[in-house]
Amino acid sequence: MAMRQTPLTCSGHTRPVVDLAFSGITPYGYFLISACKDGKPMLRQGDTGDWIGTFLGHKGAVWGATLNTDATKAATAAADFTAKVWDAVSGDEVLTLAHKHIVKSVSFTQDSNCLLTGGNDKVLRIYDLSKPEAAPLEIPGHTSAIKKALWCNGDQQILSAAEDKTIRLWDRTSMEAVKTLSFDTSVSSMEYVADGEILVITYGKTIAFYNALSLDLIKTVEAPASINSASLHPEKDFFVAGGDDFKLYKYDYSTKEELESYKGHFGPVHCVRFSPDGELYASGSEDGTLRLWQTAVGKTYGLWKCVLPEDLGAENSEQLYTTAPEIKA
């Protein structure tokens, strides 16, 4: 009997979920933040999906959200022309950073002292969070809206993806573009894996892996549908992707073989990310839900409970393990 993947469903949002991010592993486990067009980013326990709290204060769709490594700070990017920094423990708003247009992306440095933003005004901004009254450093250069901007190379460089069909690598000190990648179509997502300096990007039906420092291509994989997001397992064994056909795909990273695919959402998948321990991955969708999926189906982990075949009765022999079917937020 094949193991059946049973995702945990995290409800609570009322509009499409467009971005999500995990914290690092802390003494209290790890955490998950979701950005949603309902304007109410949510914080959850990462391994169970249990709702912890909602950050209230934005007056428009939230397009980007992130946590710092130890999950003490959160940052959000929104359509109300602001980025906000939050105390992730108390839920209090710490800072509002006014912009000239919709903000799409936020990223903390490893020491949590600086915040990088990008959005529809085509300018990258670096805010020193210890001097909130100081003007940010501004890096112009993109010719269309910035979709994602991330620190890389020990926070010495910045990667940005924009609707001008380019990905650019910037030097933090000189604030100049060091390298540029150009594509035939707009890049739909970008993930940076610090361990190994790997850049995971998606465009059209393609999932591509690049060296984040040289921007040299490592490999590409073609999926059956348009892909909106992909994520590489921390140990680089697998990667997962989701897109317009409502499905999630899991591939072997070294052989590029498709290992699994299944439909779990009732709308296009907008974002997918592996947890920091690699035991699960989370997906966010147009259907307004987050779902958590096991990397190794059948393990006892989080809310999943392993059930051995000999423990099963005749009436439920189709299912090899049980789980709470839904988590109500």
UniProtKB/TrEMBL annotation:
Coiled coil: none annotated. The keyword Repeat applies. It comes from the Eukaryota. One of its GO terms (cellular component) is SMN complex. InterPro entries: WD40/YVTN_repeat-like_dom_sf (IPR015943), WD40_PAC1 (IPR020472), WD40_repeat_dom_sf (IPR036322), WD40_rpt (IPR001680). GO terms for biological process: negative regulation of transforming growth factor beta receptor signaling pathway; spliceosomal snRNP assembly. SUPFAM superfamilies: WD40 repeat-like (SSF50978). CDD domains: WD40 (cd00200). Keywords: mRNA processing, mRNA splicing, Repeat, WD repeat. The keyword Repeat applies. This is Serine-threonine kinase receptor-associated protein. It comes from Myripristis murdjan.
